[in-house]
Specification:
Elements: H1 3-24, H2 39-52, H3 54-57, H4 73-79, H5 84-94, H6 105-118, H7 146-149
Helix pairs in contact: 1-4, 2-6, 5-6
The structure holds heme C.
Length: about 160
């Protein structure tokens, strides 16, 4: 499958989900719930994301030069049926793209907490690690939480 085709399918999936959610006034893409991460991880993750990931994925996780949004309905379409551990493993072994594995495990965990929170998951008492395995669409609905992004400096 060509990457252009894959991207089109990805976007159509996201748009269909968005349209359904707008019509029904709630998200059909996932459920918001308490995730296996803390507010302190979200805050640490925001600044780590800004230094390690924002150059390619955009300051608000959605408008990177590589057009690979990490937020919104597309996030739930792509990752909703997979676990936080799968997401951690993917990011740790592939990102940042030019130096995968370069960050400390706690830094990856914090960045993932930030991405999950920006997609609607709520912080709780548990600290996220690479072993935390919660299905993503049971905690994140893909409805963008602007307040989570709020501390992000705008370009
Ligand atoms: C140098 C640019 C660059 C940097 C820096 C970068 N990425 Fe990426 N990222 C990409 C590209 C390009 C892709 C698409 C890769 C592919 O499809 O194989 C991608 C894909 C992804 C995906 C998969 C998207 C999806 O939903 O399918 C995730 C998640 C991700 N990056 C997270 C991160 C995180 C977290 C960081 C920071 C630790 C980061 N990236 C840093 C370029 C980058």
């Amino acid at each position: 499958m060509s990457s252009r085709f894959r991207r089109a399918v990805f976007w159509l999936g996201g748009l269909a989900c968005l349209a359904a959610a707008a019509q029904a006034q709630f998200s059909l893409c996932g459920t918001s719930g308490v995730g296996p991460f803390t507010q302190a991880q979200v805050d640490a993750g925001r600044s780590a994301y800004n230094s390690a990931c924002a150059a390619c994925h955009g300051p608000n996780l959605q408008n990177g030069s590589h057009r690979t949004p990490l937020i919104g309905p597309g996030f739930v379409v792509a990752w909703g049926n997979r676990s936080t551990a799968d997401y951690f493993r993917y990011i740790q072994t592939k990102m940042p793209q030019r130096e995968p594995g370069a960050l400390a495990p706690q830094t990856y965990a914090a960045i993932i907490a930030y991405i999950l929170a920006a997609n609607g998951a709520q912080p709780g008492a548990e600290t996220l690690t690479g072993e935390s395995a919660v299905r993503i669409n049971t905690i994140a609905d893909g409805v963008v939480r602007a307040t989570v992004l709020a501390e992000t400096p705008q370009p």
